[in-house]
C-alpha cells in the first residue's frame, strides 16, 4: 500500500488529504459518487464516466482484484478515483492483477484513506462540481489554477472522445434481425444483450449519417449511453430525428434516452448530483411493477416539458426516489427509451425485459410487412 500523500481539492475550496492510489500524478474532472457495492471494474470502464472523478461509497475497492474480461469498454474511462480503502491484496482465483497494477497500467490517479461519507454528503448538499486530485503537487494555489481551467460538464460534448472510430459488427451475419447501434459511448454488455437475442449488430461512430446507417439495412435502431451534456449534441439529435422518420423500432438507453427526448422537442437539464448506483427503484407505469435498476447519469429530461407535450411523448417509467422521468415512448412511433441501464453490468437484471420488448417489436414489424 502506498504511503505517499495525496490531496483532493473541490471547486468550492473544500480539501481532503489522504494517500496516493494508482498512478502518481494529477487529474481533474467532475466529482460524482456511485453507491454500488460490487462491479467496480465495470464502472471504471463505463464510457458514461468519461471526464468524471468517481467517489466509491463501498468501503473496499480492489478487494477481488482485476479480471481482464470484466470490462465495459477497451480501457478505464473514469478521470480518477476517490475511495476509503484502496485494497491492493485481492482474493479471487480468476483475477489476473491487483487494482494498483491495473491503475498504473491504465494511468489512473486516485486518492484513498479519506472520509468518503463526508465527501458524498458534501456533494449531495452542494451539488456536482469539478475537482482535482494530486499526489505530486500540493500547492493549493497552483491546483486551484488547474481546476479553474477545467471545463464544466454542462455544455460539454464528450461522445466524440469515446465512440468507435470505425464501424464494426457483432453476431451472426445470417441472423434474421439486424440492429444498427449509434455509439455515443456504448457498454459492451448492451451489445451482448442484442447478440444473445439473435441479432446481427453493426456499431456506428457517433457522427455517422443516416445514409450510412441505412446502407446496413437495419430492422431496428438503437442509440447508446455515453458521457457529457445531451444539450451540446445537436448532431446526434438530428440523427435521431432522421431515425424517427424511418419509422423502424427504435430504442435508447441513458444518453440515448435524452437524445430521443430532444429529438421530439423535450429539453434536458443538469441534475443537482445525478443518479449513480445499482439499487435505484423505478416504477413501470405500464405494468404497475417496480424494478431495481442500475443507473449512471447526471442529466435528465424535463418533466415539465413532457407534461405539456403528452400528445408527443408518453411517460412509461418514473424514479421512485425523486419522481424523475426514467422512461418514455414516442406517440405514434415504435420508439421508446429509458434513463437507466437494463443491461446492468453491474447491477440487477430486473429490466432485461426491455431488450426482449425491442426484439419482439422488430419481429412484429417484420411479420406485418
TrEMBL record:
Catalytic activity line of the entry: L-glutamine + H2O = L-glutamate + NH4(+); hydrogencarbonate + L-glutamine + 2 ATP + H2O = carbamoyl phosphate + L-glutamate + 2 ADP + phosphate + 2 H(+)
Annotated metabolic or biological route of this protein: Pyrimidine metabolism; UMP biosynthesis via de novo pathway; (S)-dihydroorotate from bicarbonate: step 1/3; Amino-acid biosynthesis; L-arginine biosynthesis; carbamoyl phosphate from bicarbonate: step 1/1
Enzyme's top EC category: ligase
Highest taxon of the lineage: Bacteria
Gene Ontology biological process terms from the UniProt entry: 'de novo' pyrimidine nucleobase biosynthetic process; 'de novo' UMP biosynthetic process; glutamine metabolic process; L-arginine biosynthetic process
Task of the protein: Small subunit of the glutamine-dependent carbamoyl phosphate synthetase (CPSase). CPSase catalyzes the formation of carbamoyl phosphate from the ammonia moiety of glutamine, carbonate, and phosphate donated by ATP, constituting the first step of 2 biosynthetic pathways, one leading to arginine and/or urea and the other to pyrimidine nucleotides. The small subunit (glutamine amidotransferase) binds and cleaves glutamine to supply the large subunit with the substrate ammonia.
Subunit-structure text: Composed of two chains; the small (or glutamine) chain promotes the hydrolysis of glutamine to ammonia, which is used by the large (or ammonia) chain to synthesize carbamoyl phosphate. Tetramer of heterodimers (alpha,beta)4.
Record's protein name: Carbamoyl phosphate synthase small chain
Organism: Neolewinella marina
Gene coding for it: carA
